[in-house]
Amino acid sequence: xxxxxxxxxxxxxxxxxxxxxxxSVTLYHGDCLEVLPELGVxxxxxxxxxxxxxxxxxxxxxxxxxxxxxxxxxxxxDIAPDGITLSLLMKSAVQHIIWGGNYFELPPCRxxxxxxxxxxxxxxxxxxxxxxxxxxxxxxxxxxxxxxxKIHPTQKPIQLMxxxxxKVADKETVTVFDPFAGSGTTGVACMNLKRKCILVxxxxxxxxxxxxxxxxxEKELSEKLFx
Length: 227
Ligand SMILES: C[S@@+](CC[C@H](N)C(=O)[O-])C[C@H]1O[C@@H](n2cnc3c(N)ncnc32)[C@H](O)[C@@H]1O
Description:
Helix content is 26%, strand content 19%. The protein is of the alpha/beta class. The chain has a nine-stranded mixed beta sheet, with helices on one face. S-adenosylmethionine binds next to strand 9.
């Protein structure tokens, strides 16, 4: 597959210029629905859409007040995609893994994924749920939510996205689409696993964070190659 500025699966020229691009990942800054018609069909939609946090959701007290979750002015972008948007996005891929799937109207599924966050506080979620369209037994992934640094308020661990690509999706998965990219975790996972990925993020400050992460990953991977 040819990778370059023209990379997409539809063979059409994409009007929007990438915000950042490397061999594996292309990041667009914009509304995912704007870019969507110009893309082709991916092997996997792996995403973590905003789901519209309830107004009374807990913000924590004491030390927890300063978590990046509370500092991120989350309300601005936390608008859940409607059913039409979600079904358009789902048409863009053969397999689907949607984090926060419990917040959306989706069909029954066999292979749901639970992330056990191994955290002790009862006023925060102990686990998160992904809906998938994949036909396999359900999966459980354990990783302490305190084990990685968050720069985006709802940032997922890289290992979780790697697990989704390697253990949940089909082995043949090569191309991945994340239309709600945030800090670019799906892109970093794709780089580590040598998959091709298109990311879209509408907030410029998160595009910048994602681009920096992707650039650092590129550097780390190329250093590994030489040492
Ligand atoms: C739940 S966060 C994703 C976090 C990501 N999984 C990570 O690890 O950083 C959802 C992201 O979708 C972005 N977003 C919301 N609506 C969007 C849209 N219509 N098009 C593109 N991005 C959108 C928000 O700005 C937010 O950063």
